[in-house]
Amino acid sequence: YEAYESVRPFRDRPMFAERKILYELHHHLNHYNIFGGGYQQGALGLMREHRSLLLTSTASALKRCGIPHIA
Questions:
Q1: Nearest-angstrom CA–CA distance, 20 and 59
Q2: Does residue 53 contact residue 19 with C-beta atoms inside 8 Å?
Protein backbone atom coordinates (compact mmCIF):
# COMPACT_ATOMS: atom_id res chain seq x y z
CA TYR A 1 0.00 0.00 0.00
CA GLU A 2 2.90 2.38 0.63
CA ALA A 3 3.98 2.37 -3.02
CA TYR A 4 0.41 2.84 -4.21
CA GLU A 5 -0.19 5.69 -1.78
CA SER A 6 3.05 7.43 -2.81
CA VAL A 7 1.69 7.64 -6.37
CA ARG A 8 -1.99 8.21 -5.59
CA PRO A 9 -2.74 9.04 -1.96
CA PHE A 10 -6.04 7.65 -0.75
CA ARG A 11 -6.16 8.91 2.84
CA ASP A 12 -6.96 12.44 1.66
CA ARG A 13 -9.85 11.35 -0.56
CA PRO A 14 -13.41 12.25 0.37
CA MET A 15 -15.02 9.88 2.87
CA PHE A 16 -11.93 7.65 3.12
CA ALA A 17 -12.63 6.82 6.77
CA GLU A 18 -16.21 5.82 6.04
CA ARG A 19 -15.22 3.62 3.09
CA LYS A 20 -12.43 2.00 5.10
CA ILE A 21 -14.89 1.00 7.82
CA LEU A 22 -17.29 -0.46 5.23
CA TYR A 23 -14.42 -2.45 3.71
CA GLU A 24 -13.55 -3.89 7.13
CA LEU A 25 -17.22 -4.50 7.93
CA HIS A 26 -17.64 -6.59 4.79
CA HIS A 27 -14.92 -8.97 5.99
CA HIS A 28 -16.26 -9.11 9.55
CA LEU A 29 -19.74 -9.99 8.29
CA ASN A 30 -18.33 -12.60 5.92
CA HIS A 31 -16.30 -14.20 8.72
CA TYR A 32 -19.30 -14.06 11.04
CA ASN A 33 -21.37 -15.84 8.41
CA ILE A 34 -18.74 -18.55 7.94
CA PHE A 35 -17.24 -18.98 11.42
CA GLY A 36 -19.91 -17.63 13.75
CA GLY A 37 -20.06 -15.72 17.00
CA GLY A 38 -16.54 -14.40 17.47
CA TYR A 39 -16.93 -11.82 14.74
CA GLN A 40 -20.32 -10.47 15.80
CA GLN A 41 -19.06 -7.87 18.28
CA GLY A 42 -16.43 -6.63 15.85
CA ALA A 43 -19.08 -6.21 13.14
CA LEU A 44 -21.43 -4.39 15.50
CA GLY A 45 -18.63 -2.09 16.65
CA LEU A 46 -17.78 -1.21 13.04
CA MET A 47 -21.45 -0.51 12.33
CA ARG A 48 -21.63 1.86 15.31
CA GLU A 49 -18.41 3.59 14.24
CA HIS A 50 -19.69 4.00 10.67
CA ARG A 51 -23.02 5.40 11.88
CA SER A 52 -21.22 7.90 14.09
CA LEU A 53 -18.97 9.06 11.24
CA LEU A 54 -21.94 9.43 8.90
CA LEU A 55 -23.91 11.45 11.44
CA THR A 56 -20.92 13.72 12.03
CA SER A 57 -20.21 14.25 8.32
CA THR A 58 -23.91 14.82 7.56
CA ALA A 59 -24.21 17.41 10.33
CA SER A 60 -21.10 19.20 9.01
CA ALA A 61 -22.44 19.21 5.45
CA LEU A 62 -25.81 20.58 6.57
CA LYS A 63 -24.10 23.29 8.62
CA ARG A 64 -21.98 24.36 5.62
CA CYS A 65 -25.18 24.67 3.56
CA GLY A 66 -26.94 26.65 6.29
CA ILE A 67 -29.51 23.92 6.91
CA PRO A 68 -30.41 23.29 10.56
CA HIS A 69 -29.66 19.76 11.75
CA ILE A 70 -32.01 17.96 14.10
CA ALA A 71 -30.17 15.41 16.21
A1: 20
A2: no
Provide block-wise average pLDDT over 10 residues at a time, the chain (71 residues): 77 79 94 92 94 82 76 58
Separation CA 55–CA 17 (nearest Å): 13
**∠35-50-70 over CA atoms, to 5°?**
145
CB within 8 Å of 10: residues ≥ 6 apart:
4, 16
pTM: 0.71
| pLDDT score of 70 | 65
Report how far apart, in Å, the C-alpha atoms of 29 and of each of 21, 32, 46, 54, 55 are: 12, 5, 10, 20, 22
